[in-house]
């Protein structure tokens, strides 16, 4: 039952990656965290490292989801180069910093950070103008230097620390640059790749400093079995979601995006 549920949520992560730019973290982290605690108990080494395992495994799944979704959106003509680079490079730099910080933080610190992060983002999307609605005929603006450099490093650090890919920051940022939801969520996938790759490599390198032996199916904090099942489910989800690229009305797309964030927040608060 454990792996059936993982496969179903893996499929959901594939759908959200294509349609909303969520590379897997917002779906995978809460689910895997809760399942590890339930199956192993809070006193087991796996249970004690549940949030670290969930975050690290999430970054691995994110590599697959973001890469495939990027290819799909590129073929659909939704990607705009100057919004992806050099912002993606600064995000990758920040991702290394965030991964190192996460290795030394407790599971509870990461969990509460996840909750606060979601709450602030939801409020920002609801009450700051420019996300839920946009003026017709608005001309998209380019990102400023500070948004690219300082903003990129901040996005990478926070996203990798929490294992969420950064889409929750890049989508609102690009949305307020004047892009519609289809374009903004499309760009979130290539911008999630630096977080996923840098985060995974850093987590694996830093795992040697931990004292826990989590078992034969772990590489550092990466749960290989969970990764395999989640990835297979995600491939199905990506296939199912691809025909809907660019077909969701903008206002509906924005509101569903915020609604999904609310559902994840509720799931992480319940314990």
Beta content: under 5%
Kindly, what is the distance between the CA atoms of the first and last residues, rounded to a whole number of angstroms?
Answer: 20 Å
Shape: globular
Tally of helical segments: 12
Any low-confidence stretches, pLDDT <50, length ≥5?
none
Give short descriptive properties of this protein.
271 residues; 2 strands; 73% helix
Tell me what the structure shows:
- The structure is a single chain.
- Helices cover about 75% and strands about 0% of the residues.
- The protein has about 270 residues and is mainly α.
- The protein has one domain (about 1-270).
- Strands 1-2 form a two-stranded antiparallel sheet.
- β1 (about 220) and β2 form a beta hairpin.
- α1 packs across α4 (about 50-75), α4 (about 50-75) packs across α10 (about 180-205) and α9 (about 165-175) packs antiparallel against α10.
- The longest helix has 26 residues, at about 50-75.
- The chain is globular, with a radius of gyration of 17 Å.
- The two termini are about 20 Å apart.
- The mean pLDDT is about 75.
Concise summary:
By secondary structure, this protein is mostly helical.
Topology of helices and strands:
Layout: H1 2-20, H2 25-40, H3 45-48, H4 50-75, H5 81-84, H6 87-103, H7 107-127, H8 145-162, H9 167-175, H10 181-206, E1 218-219, E2 222-223, H11 224-241, H12 250-269
Antiparallel strand pairs: 1-2
